[in-house]
Amino acid sequence: MNLAGKVFIFIGPPGAGKGSLSSLCVKQFGWLQISTGNLCRKHIAEQTKIGKEIDLIIKSGKLINDDLITFMVFEWFSENAHKATGIIFDGYPRTVAQAEAFDVMIKIKFPSVKTRVVLFEITDTMVIDRLCSRYVCQNPECQAVYSHSSDLNAISTEAMVCALCSGSLGRREDDSEVAVRKRLDIYHRHEQQLLDFYKKNEIDIIKLDASKQLQQVFEDFVQIVGD
To answer: Distances in Å between the alpha carbon of 209 and those of 19, 29, 213, 218?
Structure first.
């Protein structure tokens, strides 16, 4: 199975399992993952200039602007792309403007690499159930996800300590039901526009049933892309 040098764009609502599948791919294949959500939280935790700006935007319930997100992605890409045999973009691009900027970047940095889009299909009801029962490691370098929801292949949170780094577990402010519904509304507003962009540019779109157990989603993914 030759997966080296490929770039995958994971598209799906919050709680669809994009981060969990990314982590498995990183572990199994040695790929690199860029999560704009994790990048944002890292900047916020470190109280960088960008982090303070992002924190204010999130607390006001608005969508972080394209220029700010794109700057963070380009910065990460410039520092890490040379290390990768495969890259997963988790949560980016979220808008057509971001997708256009990303397409230009890939053509410049990876002119011979084929970009493939992976669409995580899942109902809003299941997303809400997952996120409202989710706990996350508070260590900004880890951010492992745990849950009482069995469909997430979860580990018990009784000790409230991360099994990977011993960091404390906690809830994210944006994992309340009200916040999740707002995030879903924003996601759905942009999803079809993104898919139309990729179809227009003849970029492969892989569909995954994200309602399945994580291991099954991983096996489905490997079967489809392992060419």
So the answer is: 15, 21, 10, 10
Helix (H, G, I), strand (E, B), or coil: what is residue 45? helix
For residue 164, what is the DSSP state?
T
CATH number of 6-123+176-225: 3.40.50.300
Q: How far is CA 179 from the centre of its chain?
A: 18
Q: Which residues contact 159 (CB under 8 A, 6 or more apart)?
A: none
Spans of all domains in the chain: 6-123+176-225
Per-residue pLDDT tens digits for 92-125? 898 899 999 888 887 887 777 778 999 999 999 9
> Can you give the pLDDT at residue 158?
59
* Interatomic CA distance for residues 129 and 33, integer angstroms: 25
pLDDT of 1 > 60? The answer is no
Query: How high does pLDDT run on average in the chain?
Result: 84
User: Chain centroid to CA 223: how far?
Assistant: 21
- What's the pLDDT at 196? 95
Chain centre distance of CA 67: 18
Q: Which region holds residue 97: left if phi is over 0, alpha if psi is between -120 and 50, else beta?
A: alpha
Q: Which residue has the tokens 């799906």?
A: 12
CA dihedral over 61, 182, 139, 217, signed as positive or negative: negative
Question: CA-to-CA distance for 63 and 224, rounded, in angstroms?
Answer: 33
